[in-house]
């Protein structure tokens, strides 16, 4: 078993759907569903809209956003748009966004199925779209969000790159092979120069806050780039050294119970599902690429994640909290349980039960009639970056680990109008 992978699988059926009759019922209902068909339907739905739509953080892109110059005003406006029961965007002049991050995430998801010419064409088209948004000038090689963001701990405008957008875009571009040697070198230099402070990887160039999921995203990307044959040895060694140091910083930040807080600081101590998922996935990736043994912290982290961030097959948003529905959190839960099943942490059918429990709210695959009368904050579920692309990533990852999953033949899907 390669370094960075969990220790030999141990029996963890207590985390599986047998703990809940609901889980059993949902698992059996999804067994008849072709995950590849769901992925194809989801892709078609998003592609018909040119991967444009609302975003939970697009509240500052309208006219009012330009008037919100104070931190509190920006945060109030952004959160009001994000959490409103009705979609305020048309009234506020907020238009659909096409983001490089959604394109990069979806490109990597499609690349898993690239044995099919249809999915390979989809992956390349989305990868090229993400690559076209790679920055030049001062922040050459990196990627940004297409909107200003105000969080409880930071403000960063659309003109500034951030590590999360850079990682998702870079991975999609690298998975699809659309970056030339110069673009890869520019990415490597930009990552070290602007998003690494000598100790860990930072969310933005101006930030000095340790955010664990972003730090480990940077570490995993740096470790991946360090193995590129197109980079000079000196640059590759710097990337590997930075990645190792960043991994150690986040390993030191793991709590005794196995969890990671969102970040280092008094106001960053919460634990949520999708950021925990990012930490675990990127920690394993970085550990494997660097040859660093992270098995024990991974096992402790997965143990915490499965115990505290699920209610049966329903994902919890916050540890110990109620099952608040969020499309990114739900999609990441499917992605994570597929990963956990692959490594023997859960029964294989648990990821299918989680998918069945959450898929009904996603437009294009289960929400045409909005099950259970669900209509609250529908726009959040129509977000390409926050909803569609993460679920597509989860579906293709789940398809890859199913023992009876059909190989994606060329006839499994037809090119969309936009693809032709």
What brief labels describe this structure?
420 residues, mainly alpha, Glycosyltransferase, two-stranded antiparallel ribbon, two-stranded antiparallel sheet, disordered N terminus
Describe the SSE topology:
Elements: H1 21-30, H2 35-48, E1 52-53, H3 63-67, H4 71-83, H5 89-92, E2 97-98, H6 100-111, H7 117-131, E3 149-150, E4 155-156, H8 163-176, H9 181-194, H10 212-226, H11 233-252, H12 273-290, H13 295-308, E5 310-311, E6 314-315, H14 327-342, H15 348-358, H16 378-381, H17 384-401
Antiparallel strand pairs: 1-2, 3-4, 5-6
How would you concisely characterize the structure shown here?
With 420 residues, the chain is mostly helical. 52% of the residues lie in helices and 3% in strands. The longest helix is centred in the middle third of the chain and has 20 residues, at 233-252.
Q: Based on DSSP secondary structure assignment, what is the total number of beta strands?
A: 6
**Total of DSSP H or I helical runs spanning 4+ residues:** 17
**Number of self-contained structural domains:** 2
- Shape annotation: globular
- State which percent range the strand residues make up: under 5%
3D structure, described in words:
- The chain is mainly alpha-helical and 420 residues long.
- It folds into two domains: 365 residues, Alpha/alpha barrel (Glycosyltransferase), CATH 1.50.10; 35 residues, no CATH class.
- Helix content is 52%, strand content 3%.
- It contains 17 helices and six strands.
- The strands form three sheets. Strands 1-2 form a two-stranded antiparallel ribbon.
- A hairpin with a 2-residue loop joins strand 5 and strand 6.
- Helix 2 runs antiparallel to helix 17 and helix 14 runs antiparallel to helix 15.
């Amino acid at each position: 078993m390669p370094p960075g992978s969990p220790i030999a699988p141990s029996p963890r059926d207590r985390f599986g759907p047998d703990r809940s009759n609901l889980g059993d019922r949902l698992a059996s209902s999804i067994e008849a569903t072709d995950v590849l068909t769901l992925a194809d339907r989801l892709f078609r739905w998003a592609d018909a809209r040119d991967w444009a739509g609302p975003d939970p953080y697009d509240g500052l892109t309208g006219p009012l956003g330009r008037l919100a110059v104070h931190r509190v005003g920006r945060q109030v406006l952004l959160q009001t748009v994000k959490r409103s029961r009705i979609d305020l965007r048309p009234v506020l002049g907020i238009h659909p966004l096409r983001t490089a991050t959604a394109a990069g995430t979806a490109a990597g998801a499609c690349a898993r199925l690239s044995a099919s010419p249809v999915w390979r064409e989809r992956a390349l088209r989305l990868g090229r779209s993400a690559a076209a948004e790679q920055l030049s000038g001062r922040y050459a090689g990196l990627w940004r969000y297409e909107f200003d963001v105000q969080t409880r701990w930071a403000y960063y405008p659309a003109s500034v790159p951030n590590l999360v957008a850079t990682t998702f875009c870079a991975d999609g571009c690298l998975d699809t092979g659309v970056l030339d040697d110069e673009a890869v070198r520019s990415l490597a230099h930009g990552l070290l120069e602007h998003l690494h402070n000598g100790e860990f990887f930072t969310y933005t160039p101006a930030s000095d806050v340790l955010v664990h999921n972003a730090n480990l995203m940077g570490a995993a990307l740096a470790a991946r780039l360090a193995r590129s044959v197109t980079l000079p040895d000196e640059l590759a060694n710097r990337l590997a050294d930075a990645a190792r140091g960043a991994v150690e910083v986040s390993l030191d930040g793991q709590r005794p119970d196995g969890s990671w807080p969102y970040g280092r600081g008094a106001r960053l101590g919460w634990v949520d599902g999708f950021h925990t998922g990012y930490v675990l996935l990127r920690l394993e990736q970085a550990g494997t690429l660097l040859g660093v043994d992270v098995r024990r912290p991974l096992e402790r982290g997965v143990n915490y994640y499965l115990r505290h961030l699920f209610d049966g097959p329903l994902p919890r948003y916050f540890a110990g909290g109620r099952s608040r529905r969020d499309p990114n959190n739900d999609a990441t839960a499917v992605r994570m349980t597929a990963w956990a099943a692959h490594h023997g942490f859960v029964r294989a059918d648990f990821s299918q039960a989680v998918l069945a429990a959450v898929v009904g709210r996603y437009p294009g695959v289960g929400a045409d009639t909005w099950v259970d009368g669900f209509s609250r904050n529908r726009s959040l579920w129509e977000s390409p970056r926050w909803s569609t692309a993460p679920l597509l990533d989860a579906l293709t990852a789940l398809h890859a680990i199913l023992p009876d999953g059909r190989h994606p033949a060329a006839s499994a899907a037809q090119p969309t109008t936009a693809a032709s």
